[in-house]
Amino acid sequence: MTRFRLGHATHPDWRMALSLSIAQIDGEIAAEPAAEPPTLGLVYFSDHFAQHAQAIVDTLRARWPDVAWCGTVGVGVAATGVEYFDQPAVVVLLAALPRERFRVFSGTRPLGGFAAHTALVHADGQTPDLPELIGELSQRVESGYLFGGLASSRGAVVQVADGVFSGGLSGVAFDREVALVSRVTQGSQPLAPARRVTAGERNVVQRLDGEPALDCLLRDLGVGSREPRTALARIRATLVGLSDADDAPMARHGQFGTDTRVRHLVGIDPQERSIAVADRVEPGMRLAFCQRDVDAARRDLVRICTEIRDELAPADDGDAPRRMLGAIYVSCAGRGGPHFGAPSAELQIVRHALGDVPLAGFFAGGEIGHHHLYGYTGVLTVFVEPAR
User: Most buried by CB count within 10 Å: which residue of 72, 85, 280, 359?
Assistant: First the structure.
């Protein structure tokens, strides 16, 4: 049976935080000495420890020399039911997967001939043409499904992929025998139904459903259409949800669908009655103005956890549900900390819904799900027993 083992700790000294994490895992291994040895390790550390990334990896390699390592840095890291946001902390997750079922990759170590079905991806947000690179990588895995996020740090931005480096993409790919279930949860609430972009180029939206885009924005905000400057505070708090022409922009209960990407509204032009957004737009795309909403984020997080549980439920009443083995949760740095109302509230929701599944994750500068780069979302991926 594949086992996932978790260790995590906060301490001002990286050595102590890592030692405490390792001790937790050693305790689990000692309690079950006949279990298969770990082969894959994930390590996430807060940016307080970014400068010590190489020392952290060297220490982990010395303790488990036969384990392949993957991970990155975040302004916060997560474990089962716990958030270490803006704290010096490290999280280590070990898995005993067959070595032929996964492959760690990076810019200097491509996938080669590995038959990848899905992939966990970490990336540097400053990488040129990053959305296009994510799309290209998605096309190279059989399912087209990627999950992960962008490293976030107030200092060095580093990734771990059997070594420590900066820039580009890295991660670990899995073949089709590694069973997992993954969902994206949105953190913003639409202010009105989505409209179609009928005129726009680059990052400027000129018309929505044939109307000036700025007039649509001001109407959705409930302010006068001729004096946008009087509503600047509300405009600055407004985001846009973009979806491609063929994607459904809305899901049930008036919430965004999983293919919607939330982006910043970066400017308005009162003369041209246009708006500018932090992404490329094309005629035919759907756009809805939105705002971050804690209650909507809570509801949607519960929804995806429920969907995962339902997917693992037995088809016949006499069968047992498929067991969850381990999980990875990548959440937006803008959702972490106090956004959900209390320390560790976001991860407590996941724990309450899924139970004490060994979980590791980090708070990212952008989240990766399928072939999209998101913002203000969470991506929850659960490894499960293969279907019999």
Answer: 72
